[in-house]
Structure formats: C-alpha cells, structure tokens
Amino acid sequence: MSDTSKLANVRTGTRIVGAGRRKKWTGPVVNPPVWRASTHLYESTAALAEGPRRNEDGRFFYGRRGAPTQWALSDALTQLEPGAAGTVLYPSGVAAISGVLLTVLKPGDVLLISDNAYDPSRAMGKGLLSDFGIEPRFFDPLDLAAYEEAFCDRTAAVLLEAPGSLSMEMCDVPAMASIAREKGAISVLDNTWAGPLGFPALEKGIDITLMALTKHVGGHSDVMMGSASAGPELYARMRQRAQQLGTVVSPDDAALALRGLRTLNLRLKQETDSALSIAEWLSQREEVAQVLCPMLPGAPGHELWKRDFSGGCGLFSFVFKGGTPADRNRFVDALELFGIGFSWGGFESLALPIEPSAYRSCMTWPPKPGETEDRFGVRLSIGLEDPADLIADIEQAMAAWHVA
Ligand SMILES: *Cc1c(COP(=O)(O)O)cnc(C)c1O
Questions:
Q1: What fold, for 4-262?
Q2: Rounded distance, CA 80 to CA 84, Å?
Q3: Is it true that the peptide bond before 366 is cis, omega within 30 degrees of 0?
Q4: Fewer beta carbons below 10 Å: N end or C end of the chain?
C-alpha cells in the first residue's frame, strides 16, 4: 500500500520530506493537489449503500471526512510521531484541545490542568467543561508530590504543557505521564512548543499529544489548524468524536500546513540557534533579571529539557529587573524588527508583553519569589531573521526602557 514504507528506517530530516506523499494521492506530481470537495460521487446505489458501513482512513465518503489533501497531512504527522496510530486534524489548536477533552471526559469527571497551561485551555476548563459537568482542578506542575495527591477516583484525564505558557517552566513530563497511568487517568500533552521533532511525546509515555499547527507546522502566519495523535484505541475514539462534532479542515489550509511541514526541521534548527544566542546575550544585560528559556544552560528547567528533549524552538521569555509596565511597553514599542502579536512559530519575529499572574491559580509569578519588583516580562518568538540584527534591535530598544 505505502510508497512511504521506505521511510521506516530513515532519519527525521529525510522522513519529513517524504511523509504522507503517497502516489495514489499525489499522482505524478510532488504534492497532493487541493481536493476541494463536499460531495463525493458513487458509481452506483450499491456503492452508495456500502459507504456508511465502511468508516476508515483514506476512504471517500463525504467532505466532512476529508479527501486526499487532508489525509496526506494527517498521514505525514502520524509518520513523524513515533507510537501514533493516527492523527486527527482540527480547525485550530483550541479546537484540537476541546476535541480531545470532549473525547476523554464525561460529566462527573475531574480534569487536572497544569496551572501554567495555555490560557484558553484554562478557560475551557472553567467554562465549556464546567458547563458540561466536568470539574477542572489546577495543580503546580513543578510539585510532583502535590500533583500525585491531586488525583481522586473521579480524575479521568490530565492536561500537561511543557514548557509552560508565557513563564516557560519545564516539568517532568515522563514522570507525570507515568503517575497518570498508574492512577488510571489519560495523559494529554499540549506539545505545540517542541512538537514531535523535539519531544516524541507518545514514546515518553503520554497518551494523546496535540499541537497548534497554526504555530510551527504552518510556520508562515497564514493558517490556523490543530492536530492530535495517539495510539490505536484513543485515535479511534478521537476520530469518531471529531466526526460527531463535525470538525473538518479545509483542503487549502491542509495544503498550506503540508508545505510548512516540509521545512519544519530546518526552521526549528535555525530558530533554536538564534534564540539561544539572543537568550545568552539577554542574560548578560544589566536590565534583565531572568531569562526564561529552558534551552539556555543555567536557566530554570534546563536540566529537564536536556534530559528529555532533543530540540526546542525560538519561543522564550525574559523578565526585566525592576521597572514599570510602562517601561516594558516602551521597550516593546521601540523594537523595529519584531511585530507585536499573540501568535508565534512564524518565520518573522514577534514580541509580547506578558503578565502571567493573571492566568495562574496556584503557581507564583515572578518565578523567583521574593523579588517581586522583577515582574514585568516580555515573550519573544524568534523567527528567521539574522540573529545579529535582532540583537542590535533589542539593544537599541533597551535605551527606551532606560528612559524614566
Ligand atoms: C496558540 C496555541 C494554541 C492554540 O492554537 P490556535 O490555533 O491559535 O487555536 C494551543 N496551545 C498553545 C501552547 C498555543 O500556543
């Protein structure tokens, strides 16, 4: 069946070029064409009657189950995720989170949520899921004993994220996945930061790994999409629930995401190198109290990152030494090569003023308690510009921070 079987023993850089490229979907060209389709036509009424009985991957049925453009993308993502039986695509990263949680939870269940999870995930726990009778409980992912104690007989799932949103704390994901398994709960990881190239989550014991493809896989700030991958049983359940919820992605967007995916490995390497040199430079500056970048030796979480991750990306934060929100905002406004925006993972650099304490129930901000005057942070998403230019830009913007 597969002309991608030759990818079985190749390295990641090779796999990412060939993944999902099946001849029956591409024909004689390199990329699968954009199959725009709601209606799928049948040869006869007999074939039509057969349609609903066979609900399997790669089978034409009706637009809501996708067509070769979407199938090629999910197949490619599955081939990049060791241990995955399949990948469900969702119209955004947030739709992936809700799609997964509505698969594994039912009324009466408790969901444990990492206190430093992406804010819309926290809001989903307190809003959508609470409305459906599911109880969210937040825990500090840096306190393994408290995490273990947080389980009760109603805990059906845990939602983890590493590193944490905005504040970038690194937790012990393999240990937390294994505790969840012992307690009979399903572990879900929002792996948008490292993705499967930097952290093969299922191999590390996670049950369901999800990503906002909007960020690095799309990579060009022009598409919104999400994905979730798992082993056979959970994949089948997620796929069925996505069909019930009616979530579907457009073939045009799937083609954009596939195009982004082909260069993901190179972009992540470049971004990681640039982010490291910028983080290192920032850590030497007198204006900076802390650089929150687990890839940086000596930074919080670096030892866990080094132990568990094989890669990272260009996203990290730093905290100013003292100052005011206005000082910090003047710095961000003075940047010329960085856009100001919520997203990240694109080819262009972005800066975002951050106030994580508004999104925490039990973790402290700033990360070094006691030094409360050092609390005004900035998150940087480092893109593909020359890092020397980005450093020069940050240096000139620091002059605006100094102005009283
Ligand atoms: C952006 C983001 C999401 C959501 O993705 P959208 O496509 O914007 O819905 C989920 N998780 C993390 C960690 C993100 O940064």
A1: Aspartate Aminotransferase; domain 2 (3.40.640)
A2: 9
A3: yes
A4: C
Nearest-atom index, ligand 1, CA of 95 = 9
Q: What is the mean pLDDT of residues 376-386?
A: 97
pLDDT at residue 369, rounded to an integer: 66
Which atom belonging to ligand 1 lies closest to the Cα atom of 193?
A: 13
Residue 48 corresponds to which tokens in the numbers above?
């039509």
Across residues 96-107, what is the average pLDDT? 98
DSSP 164: P
- At 366, the pLDDT band (50, 70, 90 cuts) reads confident
Residue nearest to atom 2 of ligand 1 (CA): 212
Q: Where are the alpha helices (DSSP H) in 39-133?
A: 45-50, 68-79, 93-104, 119-124, 130-131
* Domain 265-402 CATH (choose: 1.10.1740.10, 3.90.1150.10, 3.90.1750.20, 3.40.50.150): 3.90.1150.10
Residues of the chain with CATH 3.40.640.10: 4-262
Query: What share of residues in the chain are helix, strand, coil (percent, to 5)?
Result: 40, 15, 45
Residue 1 has pLDDT above 50, yes or no: no
Mean pLDDT of 372-382: 91
CB of 92 shorter than 6 A to ligand 1: yes
Mean pLDDT estimate for the chain: 95
In the DSSP assignment, the letter for residue 7 is: G
The answer to whether 260 and 122 have CB atoms below 8 angstroms apart is no
Whether 253 lines ligand 1, by a CB cut-off of 6 Å, is: no
Report pLDDT digits (tens) over 196-226. Answer: 999 999 999 999 999 999 999 999 999 999 9
**By the 8 A CB rule, do 61 and 55 touch?**
yes
Distance 226 CA to ligand 1 centre (A): 8
Chain region(s) in the chain for CATH 3.90.1150.10: 265-402
pTM comes to 0.97
